């Protein structure tokens, strides 16, 4: 009310933040008035600008989205939720802008479990046999990346020493979401072996 009265009388008021109260005369009085204004102030002259609410809204949206994700992964999307237990602020490929589209597509397919392997294609009724073209075993993602003799090198051979062996694809993808070296190795392998899934 006092600020409004000053404004109506054309009195210019400048507010300044003081980091402490000790040794500055009058600060204790101002502090007591500030506390009183919080408790008894009028809402008629209060303005809340939309940009003041951005941080609150973003936090609430993020936590609400995570709660929904936690509930929905109990019904569907369990494979992906094991790889990505929480919603990231940015997609995995945000750090890899120079990776070509084909490699990004293969890793995305591996992460969601929708690849064009013999095993998956057989399950969808597209081909008659789930056996890999090498003829040794079922053509799963794990077989193609780690054990297929048609590859000149196994993914095991280029993984960093921090990765425990043996490891399956799901565990490797989980590790790659938190360890950049692991993801770099996977990208290098897919690129060098010209893997199309």
From TrEMBL:
One family name in Pfam for this protein: RNase_H
InterPro entries in the cross-refs: RNaseH-like_sf, RNaseH_domain, RNaseH_sf
A molecular function GO annotation: nucleic acid binding
Boundaries of every RNase H type-1 domain copy: 1-39
Cited PROSITE patterns: RNASE_H_1
Name of the protein described by the UniProt record: Jg22447 protein
Species per Swiss-Prot/TrEMBL record: Pararge aegeria aegeria
């Amino acid at each position: 009310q006092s600020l409004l009265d000053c404004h109506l009388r054309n009195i210019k008021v400048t507010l300044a933040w003081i980091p402490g109260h000790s040794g500055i005369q009058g600060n204790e009085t101002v502090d007591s008035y500030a506390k009183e204004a919080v408790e008894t102030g009028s809402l008629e002259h209060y303005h809340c600008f939309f940009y003041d609410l951005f941080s609150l809204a973003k936090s609430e949206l993020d936590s609400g989205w995570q709660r929904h994700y936690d509930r929905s992964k109990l019904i569907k999307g369990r494979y992906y939720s094991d790889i990505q237990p929480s919603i990231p602020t940015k997609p995995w490929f945000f750090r890899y802008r120079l990776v070509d589209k084909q490699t990004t597509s293969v890793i995305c397919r591996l992460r969601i479990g929708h690849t064009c392997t013999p095993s998956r294609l057989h399950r969808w009724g597209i081909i008659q046999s789930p056996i890999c073209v090498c003829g040794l075993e079922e053509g799963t993602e794990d077989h193609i990346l780690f054990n297929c003799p048609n590859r000149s090198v196994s993914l095991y051979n280029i993984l960093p020493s921090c990765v425990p062996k043996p490891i399956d694809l799901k565990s490797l993808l989980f590790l790659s979401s938190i360890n950049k070296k692991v993801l770099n190795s996977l990208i290098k392998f897919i690129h060098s072996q010209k893997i199309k899934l």
